[in-house]
Amino acid sequence: MTRDTDPETNVEEEMRTDGGDVDTAGADDVQLDPWGSSTVSDYRKLFEEFGIEEFDEVLDEIPRPHYLMRRGVIFGHRDYRPVAKAMREGDDFAVLSGFMPTGDPHIGHKLVFDEIIWHQQQGGDAYGLIADLEAHSARGLTWDEIDEHARDYLLSLIALGFDAEDGTLYRQSQNRDLQDLAFELGGKANFSEFQAIYGFDGETNVSHMQSVVTQMADILYPQMDEPKPTVIPVGPDQDPHVRFARDLSTRMRFFKVTEAYASFEADDAERELLAAAYGALRDDVDEDEMVRCEDAADWLEAELTPDDVRDSTVKKLRAAGKEPLRPRTRFLDRNATDEAFEALIEAIDGEKRRYDEHVDAFDLSRTEADELAREVELDNEGYGFIPPSSVYHRFMTGLTGGKMSSSIPASHISLLDDPEDGYDKVKSATTGGRSTAEEQRELGGEADKCPVYELYAYLLSGDDDEFAKKVYDECVGGERLCGGCKEQAAELMREFLEEHQEKREEAEELLEDLDFSLESDRRGIAPNGE
Fold it and tell me: Motif ('KMSKS' region) spans which residues (predicted)?
């Protein structure tokens, strides 16, 4: 969920939002490393390999989408629809993201700042956190270094528009409720998962592993008081954290709600066959009779070609014999106390059947069952977590080409840079221009490969889509030459930094008044420190 480098990316032709590069030949395999500087050569691979969904598919469902969404900078999501629905209907939702304070905040981090602030302005409960435990354990920073950088991140977040009085800011190390939640989540995780997801091995220090569980708690923290749709804006390198948190949110639930047809358990593929058999047979029985499991087994054997799924389904049906085959909603006991399980049974209206580890309801829809399970869980001191959603933005290309990195000053513009230095960095930036002005006029520039155009699309155009498109069209049409384009961008960057730093000064007083400790009272040597 946190990062301090911005690997390279391209901006698409005509602001494409399908996640693909213009030229994908020889694209690298995608590897998502939350602590590395991995690059993404082809964003479409993230849809295929990791199940990230295209953001274009939900764009029309979002009231007043942010320009980063409209321009395809936010290119993907996981399960964002519940958040969009809450936004449209005025229901509660939340947004959270965090920052590992390993260096100065720069324009790459501004993408996340903007996403938090926009969701807050749409009515969401907004959370910004300083991932100081992660910085200490994974990057080896001292607490004094962390304190210094944490202040800078918070000042920029507030200066850009975060409402600190309405939102929540915290440090991982100073939030006891967060640490208690992390302890509970740790009981649902095991070392083999850390190996599979993050590549941890026998050399990984325990504090680093603990910081991962703390990040899982961060992602679920907005739901501590009540469940609500929650979105985590991140770069795609943080997707492993999101997937792990979604898994843990499910494992923490008291009950698992599924659809079933008989007393035995079936997987998704088997349930499809049970549904098909029931649908085919139910109209052939009299009103006072029921479809029997053995009848469904006969039907499957007669109608379907043998395969592993058919054979396993038939075997289960034969074992059930004359048991009725009937659709029902099933509540499986996952973590419920005895009191919660009894409360659930009592709360189910209509026909129901109790078993040792589950109860079947015959008059509840799946949606009604989900709501009832969460209600009973909350009444019995459970969390009732809703799996968190996420949105993914493209990485910014470094001004010198390649990745944008905090460790390469010329590659990025810090939000703390002197405005004149920001101007000079833009003037010295690599472009997507041709070798000569004549060639540029004839062939047009390559805006899709230009770090300077990214500055326009991601930051300098603000909410003005027409201006961003005008710069793009003039570049690829050969009307705009790199010298004038960089001069305009450099002037806009200088103005942005001047304004931002004035607002940072105004934010100083506000930050001092917040219930937030900017100085850590912790002692110790970072696990990976010198």
Answer: 403-407
> Would you call 220 helix, strand, or coil by DSSP?
helix
Question: Environment class of residue 51 by beta-carbon count within 10 Å: exposed (0-12), middle (13-18) or buried (19+)?
Answer: exposed
Q: Give the domain ranges of the chain.
A: 1-6+40-252+386-530, 256-379
> Do the beta carbons of residue 118 and residue 66 sit within 8 Å?
yes
Give the start-end residues of each E strand in 94-229.
94-99, 125-130, 168-171
- Residue 227 to residue 266: CA distance in whole angstroms: 29
How confident is the model at residue 121, as a pLDDT?
A: 98
Give mean pLDDT, residues 230-256.
94
Task: Give the DSSP letter of residue 27.
Answer: P
CA distance 7 to 268: 38
Residues 524, 145: Cα–Cα separation, whole Å: 13
Residue 295 CB contacts under 8 Å (≥ 6 apart), including other chains: 281, 325
Q: Which of 172, 175, 203 is nearest to 100 (CA)?
A: 172
Contact 404, 246 (CB under 8 A): no
State how far the alpha carbon of 231 is from the alpha carbons of 42, 82, 402, in Å.
24, 9, 29
Span 1-6+40-252+386-530 CATH architecture: 3-Layer(aba) Sandwich (3.40)
Can you say whether residue 199 is alpha, beta or left, with left for phi > 0 and alpha for psi between -120 and 50 degrees?
Answer: left
Q: Which structure tokens are listed for 131?
A: 């991932």
Tens-place pLDDT, residues 285-296: 887 789 999 999
